[in-house]
Amino acid sequence: MRNATLALMTLGALGLVDTPAIGQGRAGPGGRTGGGFDPTATRYINPGTLAGLDGFTHAVRVGQMVYVSGEVALDSVGGLVGPGDLAAQARQAFANLELVLDIAGVSPSDVIQLNVYVVGLKAGDWATIRGGGAKFFPQRNPPAGTVLGVAALPREGLLIAVDAVAVIKANFRPLRDDRGAPPED
User: Fold this and answer.
1) pTM of this structure
2) Does any domain span residue 162?
3) Which domain holds residue 133?
4) pLDDT tens digits for range 135-145
5) Does residue 101 contact residue 163 with C-beta atoms inside 8 Å?
6) Considering the domain boundaries, does residue 19 fall inside one?
7) Which has the closest alpha carbon to 68: 44, 38, 89?
8) What is the DSSP letter of 34?
9) What residues contact residue 136 under an 8 Å CB cut-off, 6+ apart?
10) Residue 42: per-residue pLDDT
11) For 93-132, how does the pLDDT look when each residue is reduced to its tens digit (9 = 90+)?
12) What is the rounded CA–CA span in Å between residue 91 and residue 22?
């Protein structure tokens, strides 16, 4: 990873590729990143439209890695979605996870590790959970992960929490074509 980061920084410094700028997602206005890649920059992501559990940041982005805390079935004002309904809570938890990933500049396909925590997990619950987050469980090359049955979650009524680790893929895009002209968008 270190060699790839150094190579990316070198290519960016030589003007051979665009590199993603921290805080701008995959590209800035007009598809350009407008800055360099800082592998040590840290960005704390707490969407104002998403309620969370006290004491946790929704996500932390460090260089090309995004670490997402356990997303749960809370709506934008902190209300519990789907009391007693694992399917409804799974849909909301995965929707919240997808929102946080999007703000961090990644998508469900960029998730490399996914952990699911379920209160009173039963064998039949897995199909329900997968249905609630189908984008996160592709048929080919799904993420690494763990499903854990737990006694409780930090707030009364919560049945599921989902955390994730994602990798921001490098944006290797030539700054100029072979004729010296900027690439077309």
Assistant:
1) 0.72
2) yes
3) 40-167
4) 999 999 999 99
5) no
6) no
7) 44
8) -
9) 94, 97, 108, 111, 114, 142, 143, 164
10) 93
11) 999 999 999 999 999 999 999 999 999 999 999 999 999 9
12) 29
